[in-house]
Amino acid sequence: MTEPIQVNFEKCTGCGLCSKSCPFGAITIVEKKARIGELCTLCSACVQICPVQAITIERREVKVDLSLYRDVWVVTEVGEGCMKGVSFELLGKARELAAELGQKVCALLLGHGVRQYTDSLAEYGADVVYLAESEALARYTTDAYSPVISGLIAKHKPNIVLFPATRMGRDLAPRVAATLGLGLTADCTGLSIKDGMLLQTRPAFGGNIMADILCPYTRPQMATVRPNVMPKPEPQRGRRAEVVEVPVKLDPKSARVHLREQVRTCAAGGKKIDEADVVVTGGRGACDANGFELLQALADELGGVVGASRVAIDLGKKPKSVQVGQSGITVSPKLYIACGVSGAIQHTVGMRGSKLVIAVNTDPGAPIFEFAQYGVVGDLFQIVPALTEEIRRRKACK
Amino acid sequence: MRIAVCVKQVPDTTEVKIDPKTGTLIREGVPSIINPFDQFAVEEAVRLRDAAGGGEVIAISMGPPQARSVLVHSMALGADRGVLLCDRGFAGADTWATALSLSLAIKKLGEFDLVLCGMQAIDGDTAQVGPELAQLLSLPQITYVDKVEIEGRKVVARRQLDEGYEVVEARMPALLTLMTPSDFVPTNPPFSKISRAQKKPLDTWGICDVGGDPEKLGLKGSFTTVTRVYTPPKREKAVMLEGTPTEIARKLADVLAKEGFI
Which of A19, A46, A60 best probes binding to B when mutated, by most B CB atoms within 10 angstroms? Predict the structure, then answer.
């Protein structure tokens, strides 16, 4: 079998830019020519950077008529007694994409007793709501949701389907993709239209690298999108949508995974960390003595919530539900105050969407300062109480 | 108890740095490791096998020849054998083509009670291969599991939700994707076990061995195409505030007032 990646030795000047750009260390320069090694994953970083276009990658051909697929779909998610904010964020993005394509926005609403949400989905941008009401859909399960959504996609042939990159969406979307044999891009932070296709931007290597991804051969183009990275649109009051009832006949025996127990937890104070406007986060440096009490006092003054880095969670200072970062929650508050957080990429990937970032750390070399607009090299045990006091004083003077 | 565990070799990203001049990843000195979530999956597979009084744990990986080392590592942790899917035709696979390759290998290996995967790899972070593999093997899936036990023919798993958790059960066979509980400390196998693992059976299979269609695997079989890879634009470095704690507090309060937070 011939290699899909080829180096044209006549063009190659041996400049070595490809070797430097390769995230996998797969390219070496031998006798002034680039050699692609077995570590190559065909990511195409080298193809982009090569100044003389000496490297080419052969891709598969398109065989189906992709223009038959129309409209931008959003799979919505209902939380505890409310529509999850990410559903509206995705509708906002879907509106933008659909406007550019001249297509419609359709929302998929699955659940039991969820009809009440159709109006708000319309106000946030849905032209059509596919409503699947069934007792079998009351709680999310892979075996119930995946066939319903796969069936709707197969029948109506959307062009784009967006899923929330929540635990639900990341369980569901790949199952649907594999059922229908479709491409899927995980955890996108950016979406746009390029040459009529969905250009999907996502972080990899813990946020160290960004990748632009297209799905040229199959439709729909599917992506999961992180909560809190797309702005929530302004609702248009009174906007209406066509509601299409989806009859659901699920055989209860088809469920293969059964619930024994469910425990719902929420951040202290009721406000969830990914919905708060102000987040005050503590890392290793806040784990001594009453560090987190000081942070709580500051958060209280600012009407915010307290988050924590993985270290603080592991030390038992805060519950897992407020962990910011790669293995925790992505937040994008208006104000993020990082105290005693060094700023490892596993953490910053979860907070880099924050608007205003203030960092307090004793180590002037801490990477968190590269993500902050304002930095303080100092002891949070002195700075945080002084700031809390100063805010109290100013509020009292108002 | 027969368990297949999918493992991936990844760069130890905690040590990856960006060259400020060229804006590229500095790979020198960055070791390759077993994906931490996969290590947990291997350790759980071994524990479940032993608790069941025996059986077989087979570690499967797809990658270049050097990915052998994660299979040896898995066997040092207690897996009974390893299978490496190694063929240039597998290269460039997106999550779909990867899941398809793994499904062929698992089908070839026969019946399993459980298939375990890490919840995601720390390089790609997609969390897609597990559920895609479950669908291709027609198995029920339980994702984000941090605790698992066997009760007769049932697997009982605690899965983490965005808010809280649930405990679910399924008849085996089933596929689980595992996330490490916060108190997980990966076992570092001693040299004697690594040395013994070198003698355990480790097969290397190409596309022909698993009966795959080269047109449907690797880059050719992938539905998604990476068109550009780049480092995210760097933010401007922070404005550093100096002075006594009181002075700094005043300056910070000025910023917060200007931005409307006070």
Answer: A60
